[in-house]
């Protein structure tokens, strides 16, 4: 049975939409009736997602756009392209763009620290601010901003000091945004995925994957669709009284 179209006539912007969780989010929101702006550093990946949306959700106005979320001029150009195409701000924004540069603290370079913070935290800030500004400027309140944190931001992980710091930062940023933007009817929430099988985790050795799977009470690694389902909930009116929340999607890992 088809899912109810809870996001009909809604424009959703998804960063990192060309891969993994971001791609699954684009597909899930489109299934809910949204028009999706698929944003990625790689236009080829974004176009690949766009082709899937055109196949699965034809008749809706989707677009693929290249942007580097860590650069303010790129984010500005992105928002101008969206405004001129849709003549309206996105009402849903999902910050899924993210990178890892794993290294133990004693060897972690300043460059690897900065690059992860720049994409994961500064990128989330720039998009959150730009989308909120576009909603406020439109004079029509209301929206949902969903940021991808990580369970690693809460519990840490060997070799991921930069990543953990960036994701803890995303949670603090999102809780502050929730407080500041509530008066404009904009809800801001963080999703904390656990271990989700995507291109990001492809490099992880099978031995480690098996170890994690064995630690997960629900007995399996997560799938991008597990996160996308929660995203769809946070994007719709079904979650209208939830803001500033951090929702763990971990199968119970680290409970
Ligand atoms: P992924 O590598 O499959 O996808 C990330 C996407 O972000 C890629 O398409 C990449 O091109 C894009 N991207 C990277 N830098 C960018 C930039 N500067 N500007 C725009 N786009 C950029 O990763 P994923 O597993 O789908 O992860 C998605 C999000 O979920 C990330 O924020 C990640 O930290 C978070 N997360 C993932 C897991 C997991 O286990 N996979 C767990 C917790 C949190």
TrEMBL record:
It catalyses: testosterone + NAD(+) = androst-4-ene-3,17-dione + NADH + H(+); 17beta-estradiol + NAD(+) = estrone + NADH + H(+); 17beta-hydroxy-5alpha-androstan-3-one + NAD(+) = 5alpha-androstan-3,17-dione + NADH + H(+); a (3R)-3-hydroxyacyl-CoA + NAD(+) = a 3-oxoacyl-CoA + NADH + H(+). InterPro entries: KR_dom, NAD(P)-bd_dom_sf, Sc_DH/Rdtase_CS, SDR_fam. It is an enzyme of class 1 (oxidoreductase). Pathway: Lipid metabolism; mitochondrial fatty acid beta-oxidation; Lipid metabolism; fatty acid biosynthesis; Steroid biosynthesis; estrogen biosynthesis. GO terms for biological process: estrogen metabolic process; fatty acid biosynthetic process. Its EC number is 1.1.1.239, 1.1.1.62, 1.1.1.n12. The keyword Oxidoreductase applies. Residues 10-194 form the Ketoreductase domain. One of its GO terms (cellular component) is mitochondrial matrix. PROSITE patterns: ADH_SHORT (PS00061). The keyword Cell division does not apply. Pfam families: adh_short_C2 (PF13561). GO terms for molecular function: estradiol 17-beta-dehydrogenase [NAD(P)+] activity; quinone binding; testosterone dehydrogenase (NAD+) activity. Keywords: Fatty acid biosynthesis, Fatty acid metabolism, Lipid biosynthesis, Lipid metabolism, Mitochondrion, NAD, Oxidoreductase, Phosphoprotein. Belongs to the short-chain dehydrogenases/reductases (SDR) family. Heterotetramer with CBR4; contains two molecules of HSD17B8 and CBR4. This is (3R)-3-hydroxyacyl-CoA dehydrogenase. It comes from Eleutherodactylus coqui.
């Amino acid at each position: 049975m088809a899912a109810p179209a809870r996001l009909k006539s809604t424009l959703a912007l998804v960063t990192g939409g060309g891969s993994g969780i971001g791609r699954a989010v684009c597909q899930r929101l489109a299934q809910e009736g949204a028009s999706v702006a698929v944003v990625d550093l790689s236009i080829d990946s974004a176009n690949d997602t766009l082709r899937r949306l055109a196949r699965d959700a034809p008749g809706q106005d989707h677009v693929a756009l290249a942007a580097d979320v860590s650069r303010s001029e790129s984010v500005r150009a992105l928002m101008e392209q969206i405004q001129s195409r849709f003549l309206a701000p996105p009402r849903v924004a999902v910050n899924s763009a993210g990178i890892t540069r794993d290294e133990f603290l004693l060897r972690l370079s300043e460059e690897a620290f900065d690059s992860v913070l720049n994409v994961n935290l500064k990128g989330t800030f720039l998009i959150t601010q730009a989308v909120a500004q576009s909603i406020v400027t439109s004079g029509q309140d209301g929206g949902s901003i969903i940021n991808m944190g990580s369970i690693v931001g809460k519990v840490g992980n060997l070799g991921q000091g930069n990543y953990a710091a960036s994701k803890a930062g995303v949670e603090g940023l999102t809780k502050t945004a929730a407080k500041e933007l509530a008066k404009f009817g904009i809800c801001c929430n963080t999703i904390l995925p656990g271990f989700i099988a995507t291109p990001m985790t492809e490099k992880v050795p099978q031995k480690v994957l098996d170890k994690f799977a064995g630690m997960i009470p629900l007995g399996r690694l997560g799938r991008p669709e597990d996160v996308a389902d929660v995203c769809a909930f946070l994007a719709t009116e079904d979650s209208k009284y939830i803001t500033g929340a951090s929702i763990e999607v971990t199968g119970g890992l680290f409970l």
